[in-house]
Structure formats: C-alpha cells, structure tokens
Amino acid sequence: MKQDAGAQQPDWSALMRSALAGDQRDYRRLLELMTPVLRGVIRARASGMDPEWCEDVVQETLLAVHLKRATWNRDLPLRPWVYAIARHKLVDAFRRRGRSVHLPVEDFAETLPAAPQPDGLEQRDAGVLIAMLPDRDAALLRCLAVEERGHDDCGTRLGLSPGALRVALHRALQRLARLRQEAGQ
C-alpha cells in the first residue's frame, strides 16, 4: 500500500481504491483513519458548537462519503473530495440551525470558476453580420448588444422613442437572423 509523502499514515486514495475493488478491511481502515481527521476539521470550523452537534456533522459526512463513494474519480486524490463533502455537510448543518455561515474564501479558491471571457470569434462574426445591415439597424444593434447600453440611452442617441426603438430592434433582429441564415451560421 502506498504511503503519504513523509507520513506514516496509509494513503486514503489507495485505501479507497482497494475498498472499491471489494476489500472490506481496507474500507474499515479508511473510515477509522478518516473519522478523527474529519472530527478535528469540523470542530475547528464549528467553533463554539457543542461536540454532539459536531459529531452529527461527522456522521453525516461519513454517510455521504459512503453513499457517494462510487462517484469519486479514482485518478484524483481522495482527501480534497472528502473535505469538500465535509464543508458541504457543515454548511447544511449551519443552515438547518439558522446560523450565518462564514467560510474563508481560500478554502474554495481552487473551485471558484473564472469569470467568463468573451469569445473573440463570436464577437468578430457578430461584427461582420452587423456590418452587413442597413446603417440604422447596425447602429442600434451595436449600441444595445456590443456596447451594452440601455434602451433609453440608445433611443436618445439614435433619436427613437421607446416604441419606435422596440419596432426598429425587432426588424433589425429579423434582418440579422436572415443574414445569419444566408451565411450558414
């Protein structure tokens, strides 16, 4: 069995792989190793909560690990997966209790999605199609979609009342759809 680097504790991932292959002794050993670690993590995060409450969260976490063990990706380390489950169970327990939850963002930094980046090709293609429209339609779509200005601002810039802007936008979008269809996009 593999050992953690610099530690004498058995590797949780190796134990789980063995357990998933049917070795009940390795699964029992894994749970025995996991329990005190989870207990310490949950008690540290739930400072001020009574030990029984913390133990309930530990048991919920162990149950979730047991029920979801087949979903763990065997190519990834087990500990981060288990810790994520523990965080979720802790948050759920706080919610049930009605307490506000404040967890350090560092705990989630690796799992926070990056801000979506605009697709350069999509913007280029939209610009090409918009340029094929009549000037007024192109100016309207650039103002609303490309520059992301509001209807009032675009209406003022183009000299359109709110009703006229809606009609012009509808017609511009119809023309754009036809152009897109003709271009095969």
From TrEMBL:
InterPro entries for the chain: RNA_pol_sigma-70-like, RNA_pol_sigma-70_dom, RNA_pol_sigma70_r2, RNA_pol_sigma70_r4_t2, RNA_pol_sigma_r2, RNA_pol_sigma_r3/r4-like, WH-like_DNA-bd_sf
Taxon lineage: Bacteria, Pseudomonadati, Pseudomonadota, Alphaproteobacteria, Rhodobacterales
Keywords: DNA-binding, Sigma factor, Transcription, Transcription regulation
Name of the protein in question: Sigma-70 family RNA polymerase sigma factor
Similarity section: Belongs to the sigma-70 factor family. ECF subfamily.
Signal peptide coordinates: none
Domain RNA polymerase sigma factor 70 region 4 type intervals: 129-176
Source species: Paracoccus spongiarum
Domain RNA polymerase sigma-70 region: from-to ranges: 38-99
Gene3D superfamilies: 1.10.1740.10, Winged helix-like DNA-binding domain superfamily/Winged helix DNA-binding domain
